[in-house]
Design goal:
- The protein is of the alpha/beta class.
- It has helices spanning 25-32, 51-57, 73-87, 107-117, 137-145, 164-169, 181-191, 213-233, 242-269, 275-296, 302-314, 316-331, and strands at residues 14-20, 39-44, 61-64, 93-98, 101-103, 121-130, 151-153, 160-163, 195-206.
- The chain folds into two domains: 14-211, Spore Coat Polysaccharide Biosynthesis Protein SpsA, Chain A; 212-347, no CATH class.
- Strands 1, 2, 3, 4, 5, 6, 7, 8 and 9 form a nine-stranded mixed sheet that branches.
- α10 packs across α11.
- The longest helix is centred in the C-terminal third of the chain and has 28 residues, at 242-269.
- It is elongated, with a radius of gyration of 22 Å.
Length: 347
């Protein structure tokens, strides 16, 4: 098992929360990347594999979430933090990590140093990389998605090193959110005066395991649901502007296709003159894909730059489905269930 460079001297002020569901071998790699001498807990969301047994066999605490209430990553993170804080009231920092990720050597030291050097920072995160970017175009695009700029940040993902006090002060993560709980938490921290930062250090390796189109489709659908809920919860926010993201989804996947169909029908049943606007509407899509690909070509190989343009635009359609799912659930006074895109991993 990996050794923390700071040894046991900081074991009392640092804790690690791992969350997962049917991660199998991915969870094994995650657990084995965690340092000794640090409080660790794994929170399991109703896995059907032996995740809990594997964890306890390694001397790491494991919590099994019951249903109801419904499962969510936010609920799991809150449960892990509560467990660590109850055992150690002096806990200062907590590393949140998904069970399909591995902590990179040196990350915890770098992250704690950054937080201690700047008392105004509530959390920091580093470079999350895809473990197998060559296994699929989807994996490679995930790796590019996570390569955010170093410096002040407005949002964060699931892997993050937080100060415990401000996280507890805002009530932790919102367990009602099935997606987007991380940026929501970040927005609420910023609303109380705290800052966030992406630092220039390797943080985690992530095994996205998106090998099929259907998995990619469901991940985009989940993103659309998250955008819709974030826009609903933070309508006045402009950085990030989630309402603008929702408008983009509706325009590209809803309005433009609807106008194209209307122009096409008008061409067939009314007048050939409508063929021109129909053709123009069709050409808007490849033009936008080309624009994105050109911008991405500055940092990505040509094949991936083109794929980025194509999939970012095609992803508007499942995102629209996720957005509509949130709106429908909200109108009916219901809460959406999990939107899962990963397959259970074998050992």
């Amino acid at each position: 098992m990996a050794q923390h460079e700071q040894g046991g001297s900081d074991g009392g002020k640092l804790g690690i929360v791992v969350i997962g569901r049917n991660e199998g071998a991915r969870l094994v790699r995650c657990l084995e990347s965690l340092p000794d001498g640090v409080a660790r807990v794994y929170v399991d969301s109703a896995s059907s594999d032996d995740s809990v047994a594997m964890t306890r066999a390694r001397g790491i605490d494991a919590i099994e979430l019951n249903t109801p209430p419904r499962l969510s990553a936010a609920r799991a993170r809150n449960a892990g933090l509560a467990h660590l804080a109850a055992r150690n009231p002096a806990l200062e920092f907590v590393q949140m990590i998904d069970g399909d990720c591995e902590v990179q050597p040196g990350w915890l030291d770098a992250g704690i140093a950054a937080l201690e050097a700047d008392p105004g920072l509530a959390l920091v995160f580093g470079r999350r990389r895809e473990r197998y970017p060559d296994r699929s175009t989807y994996n490679a695009l995930c790796d590019d998605e996570w390569d955010v700029a170093v410096g002040p940040a407005t949002a964060c993902g699931g892997d993050v090193l937080c100060r415990v006090a401000p996280l507890q002060a805002i009530g932790g993560y919102d367990p009602d959110m099935i997606a987007g709980e991380d940026p929501d938490m970040a927005v609420r921290l910023r609303g109380t005066g705290w800052r966030l930062a992406r630092i220039d250090n390797e943080m985690t390796l992530h095994d996205a395991a998106i090998l099929k189109f259907g998995q990619w489709w469901m991940r985009c659908k989940r993103a659309g649901h998250a955008f819709a809920e974030l826009a609903s919860r933070h309508p006045d926010l402009r950085a990030p502007d989630y309402r603008r993201s929702c408008r983009s989804i509706v325009i590209w996947a809803g309005v433009i296709p609807a106008l194209f169909v209307a122009a096409l029908l008008a061409t067939v049943f009314a007048s050939p003159i409508f063929a021109l606007p129909a053709a123009a509407l069709v050409l808007i899509w490849p033009a936008k894909m080309a624009q994105i690909a050109l911008a991405k070509s500055r940092t990505l190989p040509p094949r991936l730059a083109i794929a980025s343009g194509v999939f970012l635009m095609l992803g508007k359609f499942p995102e629209l489905l996720g957005l509509l799912r949130f709106r429908r659930s909200r109108a009916g006074g219901q809460r959406s269930g999990l939107i899962e895109y990963k397959q259970a991993a074998g050992r």
